[in-house]
């Protein structure tokens, strides 16, 4: 007799989701049959598969584990993850997926599973593709919701998009799920209530107050940010860091009014083992003067500085000849989530939160070095 097993996946693209469906469909005539289920609406999930390349997926995993209780977890990616018993290497190869899943110990006791209420949505408008990032759109205007949905789905970034007609529905969703970004109609009566709900739930979500004229622009800004995150997630597990020529010499400019931050950044740069020449600037104007005289490979730029701030400095850097492709890593405070959005609009390449996390710093540095090498390759005749 075949055992039916419901599987939830976290952090996978739409293309990868379809491969899961094909793999599970190909294994129907077996002792165990697997069925891909929507995590937000299915009350009976038997196991979870999480993509190790997506660091943010593990945040979602914690949330789902609280909802479903203690479920077996299978990691999927190039390398096993410490603390997890089951792992699929090079995910989505048929034999490897089923071979691993067949050995997972399952409780399969529906009575022990807490009920999972079907999430409220605006006209059942939610889109869940097992995505890496979660977005909530709060707008009673059907045309605006459709516009945002169409714009966001133009990207190949794996997204889960939920919709709410007003703040009441939005707060119910926020209480039940972690969202990376929220698009909220600027004229929503209880906009403040939505922000307070995020604070109560200790969420660092970025809230984008939108109007009809800004909808597409803000959607594209968020997609650029998420693409930056996705690139970093993939890079950290790609094992390509050694491919960058370590004898290559780089020149970097640190722009921050805090001397201690300069020392922290230098310490992290030294950990990389690459050959670097480091210059310092403590104001935006000082940085611009140095950049007009010296060619830098990449720049770290603080947001809050005396005189012109980091956003204005970033915009001025982009106006200098030859600086349109320069990697600019903006340093942002964790208690200012909109810094990230303003930085992207100003022209920064990516951002790093303070206080600096060593692992996150090294991950971003890997990505920056690859960008530089790829740019040099593109410029070769």
Quick structural overview:
The protein has helices at 14-26, 55-68, 94-101, 142-152, 167-176, 191-200, 215-236, 259-271, 284-293, 310-319, 338-346, 358-379; strands at 3-10, 32-36, 47-51, 73-77, 86-89, 127-128, 133-138, 159-164, 181-185, 206-210, 249-255, 275-281, 298-302, 328-333, 350-354.
What do these coordinates show?
The chain is an alpha/beta fold. It has 3 domains: 3-112, Response regulator (Rossmann fold, 3-Layer(aba) Sandwich); 122-235, 3-Layer(aba) Sandwich (Rossmann fold), CATH 3.40.50; 242-379, Response regulator (Rossmann fold). It contains 12 helices and 15 strands. The protein has helices spanning 14-26, 55-68, 94-101, 142-152, 167-176, 191-200, 215-236, 259-271, 284-293, 310-319, 338-346, 358-379; strands at residues 3-10, 32-36, 47-51, 73-77, 86-89, 127-128, 133-138, 159-164, 181-185, 206-210, 249-255, 275-281, 298-302, 328-333, 350-354. Strands 2-1-3-4-5 form a 5-stranded parallel sheet. It has a 5-stranded mixed sheet with strand order 6-8-7-9-10. α11 (338-346) links the parallel β14 (328-333) and β15. α5 (167-176) packs parallel to α6, α7 crosses α11 and α7 (215-236) packs across α12. The longest helix has 22 residues, at 215-236. The termini are far apart. Mean pLDDT is 76; it is low at 109-130, 235-247 and 377-381.
């Amino acid at each position: 007799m075949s055992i039916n097993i419901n599987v939830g996946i976290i952090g996978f693209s739409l293309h990868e989701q379809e491969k899961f469906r094909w793999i599970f469909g190909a294994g129907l005539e077996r002792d165990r049959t697997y069925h891909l289920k929507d995590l937000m609406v299915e009350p009976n999930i038997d196991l979870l598969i999480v993509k190790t390349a997506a660091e943010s997926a593990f945040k979602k995993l914690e949330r789902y584990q609280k909802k479903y209780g203690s479920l077996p977890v299978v990691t999927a990616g190039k390398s096993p993850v410490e603390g997890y018993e089951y792992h699929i290497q090079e995910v989505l190869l048929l034999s490897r997926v089923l071979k691993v899943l067949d050995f997972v110990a399952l409780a399969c006791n529906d009575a022990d599973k807490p009920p999972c209420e079907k999430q409220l949505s605006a006209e059942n408008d939610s889109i869940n593709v097992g995505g890496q990032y979660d977005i909530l759109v709060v707008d009673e205007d059907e045309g605006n919701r459709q516009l945002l949905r169409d714009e966001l789905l133009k990207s190949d970034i794996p997204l889960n998009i939920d919709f709410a007609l007003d703040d009441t529905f939005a707060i119910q969703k926020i209480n039940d799920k972690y969202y990376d970004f929220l698009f909220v109609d600027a004229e929503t009566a209880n906009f403040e209530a939505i922000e307070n709900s995020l604070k109560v739930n200790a969420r660092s979500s970025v809230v984008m107050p939108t109007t009809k004229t800004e909808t597409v622009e803000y959607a594209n800004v968020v997609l650029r940010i998420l693409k930056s995150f996705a690139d970093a997630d993939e890079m950290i597990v790609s094992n390509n860091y050694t491919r960058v020529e370590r004898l290559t010499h780089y020149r970097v400019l640190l722009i921050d009014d805090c001397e201690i931050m300069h020392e922290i950044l230098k310490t992290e740069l030294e950990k990389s083992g690459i050959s670097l020449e480091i210059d310092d600037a403590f104001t935006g104007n000082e940085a611009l003067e140095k950049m007009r005289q010296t060619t830098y490979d990449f720049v770290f730029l603080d947001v809050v500085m005396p005189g012109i701030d980091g956003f204005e400095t970033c915009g001025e850097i982009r106006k200098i000849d030859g600086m349109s492709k320069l990697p600019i890593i903006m340093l942002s405070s964790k208690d200012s989530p909109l810094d990230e959005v303003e930085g992207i609009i100003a022209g920064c390449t990516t951002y790093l939160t303070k206080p600096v996390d060593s692992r996150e710093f090294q991950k971003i540095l890997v990505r920056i070095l690859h960008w530089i090498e790829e740019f040099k390759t593109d410029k070769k005749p």
